[in-house]
Amino acid sequence: MKTKLDINSMDERIKPFAVRVTARSVRRRNILLKIFIVVLLIVILLLGTLYALSSFVNKAGNFTVWIPDEDVNQIALSDTPDFENSSTMLEADIIDQMDNITKSWMPDNLDEVDGCHNGDEYIAYTFYLKNAGKNEIDYLASIDIHAVTLEADNAVRVMVIKNGEETVYAKAQKGSTEPEPDTIAFLSNTKVLENTTEGFEPGEVDKYTVVIWLEGNDPECVDNIRGGVVKMSMNFKVLEND
After folding, report:
1. How far apart are CA 178 and CA 160, in angstroms?
2. 241 secondary structure, DSSP code
3. Cα 229-231-237 angle, rounded to 5 deg
């Protein structure tokens, strides 16, 4: 005797299996969706952080001066000697394109103009650092290199005039540790200088002028660095007394 195929009975047996498969698919889809959302949030966070850092670098321009938050009650910055507008950060105007010059071409009064006084081919900034606290302190001054492209730092000169005393810094001669003529060599590829001032009395003021240019007489001042970028900052930090 032939058995008739009971379609309705088979449908009833298949339905629970179909429901279980569907539920499993939904759970898998929900898990994948949650993973996707987490990954997307991480990517957005990373992009936001990179954008913030990029914006800071672009905003900071070619040269900034700053003091850390923990020292704001002990030292202060100002681009005028009266400190009417003291600050924790000062910023030089940006020069989009800088051609090479030599030191002898620059004005003799670079240390006599307050604030930002760039020339066409150099950055110049004069500012003041004051002991705003009640105790004698020692402080560390450093100039750091934050960004370099096309090895433009090979031909850069950084002149620091502190209280009328002038010092010029440059990257060491290529392939050597010897400094360029009439300069002091950078401490490293990322640091120009690091100097300590001791016995800085309450109310005492140090005057700084920083000048940055591309030295045309440097053998490394070649066409290959054209369009290069060098970004620096100078910072001051109060040292702990033993």
Report:
1. 20
2. P
3. 170
Entry field: residues in the chain: 242
What tokens were used for 14? 């298949």
Token pair belonging to 145: 């290199």
What is the distance between the alpha carbons of residues 233 and 61, in angstroms, rounded to a whole number?
9
**Torsion on CA atoms 134, 195, 59, 147, rounded to nearest 10:** -160
User: Please, where are the H alpha helices in 61-179?
Assistant: none
Look-up of token digits 């290199």: 145
Question: What are the φ/ψ torsions at residue 241 (nearest 5 degrees)?
Answer: -85, 140
pLDDT in tens, 3-39: 454 545 555 554 554 555 566 666 777 777 778 787 7
Q: Is the pTM of this model over 0.70?
A: yes
Alpha-carbon span 85 to 78, nearest angstrom: 6
- pLDDT tens-digit map of 59-71: 334 689 999 999 9
